[in-house]
Design brief:
16% of the residues lie in helices and 23% in strands. It is of the alpha+beta class and 499 residues long. It is globular and about 75 Å long.
């Protein structure tokens, strides 16, 4: 996603969209610290959005809101350290474990409004820097919910049983698709592979993360949640499988690390014998999207709907100086920086598979110190400004960019797509360029080069290991297509290998 309005490079290819105001005024507490008795101190709507704080003010909650539902709003962004429920006022205060987590939460929900049982919920910073709660029955319930749901009680040194989750969707009133599950579960980490099937008359899925921590966080936050109001309940457990082997990319199975796989006319197969029974059953061909949020039973979890033809992404939490253009996960066609929120952009990929690939690999990755937030946009394309109507250069058309990697159908670049890693694969290196030249180039931006190795049989290619994944992402953005002389432009991508 590499994007700078000046440098114009974005890893993806390498507007008043679904923006909702998160700054509408709300009540405030007179004291500097919120506490369990503060409901009597609330005054009128006289406060604006506060400066960044660990404490988040949540308004317009449904009357029957539960503590678990409020906590679940914050869990995708970090541990929740405290909770103050003001049910009589349909409000709550959520304290995150860090200011950064709170900023990510407010930033995300300013672009994708959370919906809880038909109710749009408003999220903004509180004026308070911390919460102090009392021992009232209401607060005891809140603390019990925190202990049950917060990831802070999970010992990070204890490995999760598996990186593969088994998901059963109970009470399937509305259709649930593979893409819908990817969108929901990608909030907790990169989804590498997923398979959906029907077994014992139940719609099920197997879903693989790259690490156990992501699987554990997803299970903790989503188990027992309803995708829609009162139905489509997620029941999640760790699978006995250690890995998924997907052979086809279609509506029943997907390997996001292998976009070159065929669609296949038969059902997806896996080599693990435990899967033979599951796939001897008929896998339902479900419609291509979650029901619209305006339908009865609109999504309870607040995740945007997904359409099979969607190729426009909403990217938020960008550095304001940055703007998408060039990517290792697909070809970026158009980019629009939103006029009133320069840290948000609409990015149109060449097709929906590339959009899903970019979202799956890049959502949550850090760029210039800020974690990217990527969701599917409700728009089906990015409109160019009408002739004679300038938009200050905020909309760019890259459909004819020479940097596109996937122009040719079946391009071999599809087989070289891997999740972001600290090790980069370099190619198209001319004979005159030696190891020290490349190490000096990659360290010139201030990044640390930890290791370097030419391919033994082909010095046109090499591996270079950076100090961190974030440094590798920024280096890819800066040095892909760098002119090395002798009519050689450096090609940079993420590597599955390490040095």
């Amino acid at each position: 996603v590499c994007v700078c309005q000046s440098d114009a490079v974005f890893l993806f290819q390498r507007g008043s969209d679904e923006l909702f105001s998160s700054v509408s005024n709300g009540p405030y507490i007179m004291s500097t610290t919120a506490n369990g008795n503060d409901s009597k101190k609330f005054k009128g709507d006289i406060r604006g959005p506060g400066a960044p704080s660990r404490v988040i003010h949540i308004r317009k909650l449904p009357n029957d809101i539960t503590e678990a539902e409020v906590i679940s709003l914050g869990l995708p962004f970090g541990d929740v350290s405290n909770l103050l429920m003001l049910k009589a006022k349909n409000q709550a205060f959520l304290e995150m474990n860090s200011e950064e987590a709170a900023q990510n939460m407010v930033g995300y929900y300013s672009t994708v409004m959370p919906i809880i049982r038909h109710h749009p919920v408003y999220v903004q910073f509180s004026n308070h820097k911390e919460l102090k709660t009392d021992n009232s029955p209401n607060q005891e319930r809140a603390q019990a919910a925190l202990r049950a749901l917060s990831t802070s009680h999970v010992d990070p040194t204890v490995a999760a049983p598996s990186t593969v989750l088994r998901v059963v969707v109970e009470n399937l009133v509305y259709p649930v698709t593979l893409d819908a599950l990817c969108q929901i579960f990608s909030k907790f980490g990169t989804v590498l592979r997923i398979i959906v099937f029907t077994k014992n008359s139940q719609f099920q899925a197997l879903l693989q993360y790259p690490d156990g921590a992501s699987a554990q966080a997803a299970k903790l936050s989503l188990d027992g949640q309803n995708i829609y109001n009162g139905c489509c309940t997620l029941r999640i457990s760790f699978s006995k499988l250690t890995s998924l082997n997907v052979k086809y990319n279609n509506e029943k199975s997907r390997d996001f690390t292998r976009p070159d796989l065929p669609t296949g006319d038969s059902q997806p197969t896996m080599e693990h014998p435990a899967m033979a029974t599951a796939f001897s059953l008929t896998v339902p061909a479900l419609p291509g999207a979650l029901a619209s949020l305006s339908l009865p039973g609109a999504t309870r979890l607040g995740f945007p709907s997904i359409s099979a033809g969607h190729c426009v992404l909403l990217v938020s939490n960008l550095n304001p100086e940055v703007s998408p253009q060039q990517s290792v996960y697909g070809d970026v066609m158009r980019v629009k920086i939103l006029f009133n929120k320069k840290e948000n952009a609409l990015v149109q990929m060449s097709d929906s598979t590339q959009a899903q690939l970019a979202m799956s690999h890049l959502n949550g990755q850090r760029l210039h110190g800020k974690p990217l937030r990527i969701t599917l946009s409700k728009h089906t394309n990015v409109q160019l400004p009408r002739e004679g109507h300038e938009d200050q250069g905020l909309t760019k058309d890259y459909s004819n960019s020479p940097l596109h990697r996937f122009k040719k159908p079946g391009s071999k670049n599809y087989s070289n797509i891997f999740p972001p890693s600290a090790t980069l694969h370099l190619s198209n290196i001319p004979p005159s360029v030696v190891e020290d030249d490349l190490k000096m180039l990659f360290s010139s931006s201030g990044a640390m080069v930890k290791a370097f190795k030419f391919f033994q049989k082909d010095h046109k290619m090499a591996l270079i290991q950076m100090g961190s994944v974030e440094e590798a992402i920024e280096s890819l953005i800066e040095f892909h297509n760098h002119d090395l002389g002798e009519n050689h432009h450096l090609r940079v991508s993420f590597s599955k290998s390490s040095i």
